[in-house]
Amino acid sequence: MFNSLANESIVLDDEEQLFFDSYIKAIYFTEHDKVPTWAKNSVELDFESTRQAAIDCLSAYSKMKAYLKPESIEQAGYDFWLTRNGHGTGFWDRPEIYGDTYSQMFTEISEFFNVPATPISFELFDSKGLRTNHFS
């Protein structure tokens, strides 16, 4: 599980967690250029970015889950990040996974969210787990 929400009142079931974890993986994949090379193994999203990601994922997933096959949930979390941020691929580009109708529906849901309202921020931790830096 990425970025614990244990101290927060947000609780995710297994499918929501899978969607969320995949969404977080997509963030790290597309936003890695914001992280200094030397810090890549010691960086996490900050608490507010993680919290907002969970809220957005829960909202989007609640609109999609009735139409998703269980084996597509993980890819859908990844595609939610890519599509909402206008990356060169996403739901619209995967009708073989979602079907034409649902690819379009999921694209429209994602575009409703547009880009995150709060910028993605990262925290850097030392080997003891203590925060040493914060950057966006």
Task: Walk me through what this model shows.
This protein has one domain. The longest helix is centred in the N-terminal third of the chain and has 18 residues. It has a three-stranded antiparallel β-sheet. The protein has 136 residues and is mainly α. The chain is globular, with a radius of gyration of 15 Å. It contains five helices and three strands, in the order H-E-H-H-H-H-E-E. 49% of the residues lie in helices and 9% in strands.
Helix-strand layout with pairing:
Blueprint: H1 14-31, E1 43-45, H2 47-64, H3 73-84, H4 95-98, H5 100-113, E2 122-125, E3 131-135
Antiparallel strand pairs: 1-2, 2-3
Helix pairs in contact: 1-2, 1-3, 2-5, 3-5
